[in-house]
Amino acid sequence: MCVLQPSGTLSQSEILRLRTALLHNTAKAALEYLDGEETRAVQPSAAAVAALDAFREPLPEGPMAATEVLEQLHRLGSPATIAKTAGRFFGFVNGGCLPAALAAAWMVSAWDQNAAIFVQSPTAITLEEVALEWVRELLGLPAGTGGAVVTGATMANFAALAAARRAVCLRAGWDVEADGLFGAPEITVVIGAEAHPSVHKALGLLGLGRNRVVRVPVDSQGRMRADSLPHMDQRTILCLQAGNVNSGAFDAAAAIVPEARAKGAWIHVDGAFGLWAAASPQYRHWTKGFEQADSWATDAHKWPNVGYDCGIALVREPEMLRGAMSMTASYLPMGERREPADYNPELSRRARGVELWAALRSLGRAGLAEIVEHTSAHARRFAAGLMAAGYEILNEVTINQVLVSFGSREKTLRAIERIQQDGTCWCGSTVWQGKTAMRISVSSWATTEQDVERSLAAMVRAAREP
Ligand SMILES: *Cc1c(COP(=O)(O)O)cnc(C)c1O
Q1: pLDDT the model gives residue 355
Q2: Which of 93, 287, 298, 299 to mutate for ligand 1's pocket (most ligand atoms within 8 Å of CB)?
Q3: pLDDT reading at 255 higher than 90
Q4: What is the pLDDT of residue 133?
Q5: CA 97 to CA 358: how far, in whole Å?
Q6: Residues lining ligand 1, CB < 6 A?
Q7: Which residues neighbour 407 within 8 Å (Cβ) at sequence distance 6 or greater?
Q8: Are 221 and 251 in contact (CB under 8 A)?
Q9: What is the pLDDT of residue 1?
Q10: For residue 237, is pLDDT > 90?
């Protein structure tokens, strides 16, 4: 049986010809998809979503030609996607995908490299090392910091906090990877009341408990109150935040970190998007002090606009991450060089470091700074436009996040629903300090001033509808 065409036997040259035709057609379909971005509604129609039911067929007993598989995917799948490429998707904190990153992703798939260890892909591992070092430099982190390229900030928080758990237990003479947590010395986790839920999830996965934490109260922007820090010592893991997922606010690291360091705490930073502000001279001041932490989690699929998925864990003492993640097997080579598998939760893994490299190589320091600055300026324009239309902005718009209320909870939710249905742009809802709000996150390289004006008009139109 041939994997490209179900019937008949094909010669080697016919197989190659079919594969070439398949991939040309796929590139054509992908380009057709991307070129349609100006006219496509950001939220797919209910009919397009309902049509996905055609995928729910019984397990096929026999093969289907690969071209037909792709035809089905494009015909049914493409219309029901969320149109993120046009720069008018402002939901969650979702970046776009830079052309260089998309092209690199195509190459990564064509190469089918396993980025676990060097002998499996010298190219992937080299580019990952280069990219990690560039990220360290862009974020202004100490020389010698090491890390891992993972799927997202959730896994980055998990990996970095595993390193933290190891370090804090080792100080108390306990090898937590070998001996587990039963009977281990007590660890105290200190965390802001506005920490991202993924940090709590990571703590749960690590056996430290989602709720077994000391919560520090926050101010009106969601920043940890520096005057309300609890007792901390060598058995403490302090979790700070650089960029609140709603307000965009940064914990006051410059005030908190020196004190926590002096007390011997391990300081971890969830900087999924906010940390990238360090790339811009105009916004860098928000990240001051975070560089003195012990570990950091960030996302390349947010502000740096690498396609999904790409997160990064960074640890000042990479040995702690290695101690938490490495394993030995008789068939795995053990040498002097850095093997990603020794630092990652995963063994086999997509070569997402290649896409990270491509994005950073195409942007350079200046390009990344420009994304940070443009998206933040777009956020300020949204805030000004909505305020001028009579609506309340609930946060101090310092970077790329805006929280707007259209009045009561009901009015706000109704406006959000209409905005989503209108399709010009897409924003989600949140509850900010007890108040229902619409969240605008401008994170894509592709967002233009026209996109902002078009979207602003659509928002105001939807909110004013009786
Ligand atoms: C997005 C985000 C996360 C989770 O990141 P994923 O990439 O979705 O795993 C964690 N923390 C903050 C502050 C975030 O903005």
Answers
A1: 98
A2: 299
A3: yes
A4: 98
A5: 11
A6: 93, 152-154, 196, 198, 243, 245, 270, 272-273, 299, 311
A7: 391
A8: no
A9: 58
A10: yes
**Residue whose CA is at the smallest distance from ligand 1 atom 5:** 153
- What separation in Å is there between the alpha carbon of 222 and the centre of ligand 1? 16
Q: Ligand 1 pocket check: which of 149, 150, 240, 245 to mutate, most ligand atoms within 8 Å of Cβ?
A: 245
**Quick one: which atom of ligand 1 is closest to the CA of 245?**
15
With beta carbons less than 8 A apart as the criterion, state whether 197 and 187 touch: no
Residue 152 Cα: closest atom of ligand 1: 7
Element (H, E) at 241: strand 236-241
Domain ranges in the chain are 103-361
Task: Tell me which CATH code domain 103-361 carries.
Answer: 3.40.640.10
The pair of structure tokens assigned to 69 is 């598989």
| Cα-to-centroid distance, 312 and ligand 1 (Å) | 11
Which tokens in the block code for residue 394?
């609930």
pTM tops 0.90: yes
Ligand 1 center to 98 CA (angstroms): 19
| Distance separating alpha carbons of residues 135 and 221, to the nearest angstrom | 27
| C-alpha triplet 217, 218, 223: angle, nearest 5° | 140
Helices (H), 315-427: 318-325, 352-388, 409-422
Confidence of residue 177 (pLDDT cuts 50, 70, 90): very high
Helix axes 352-388, 122-138, angle to 10 degrees: 40
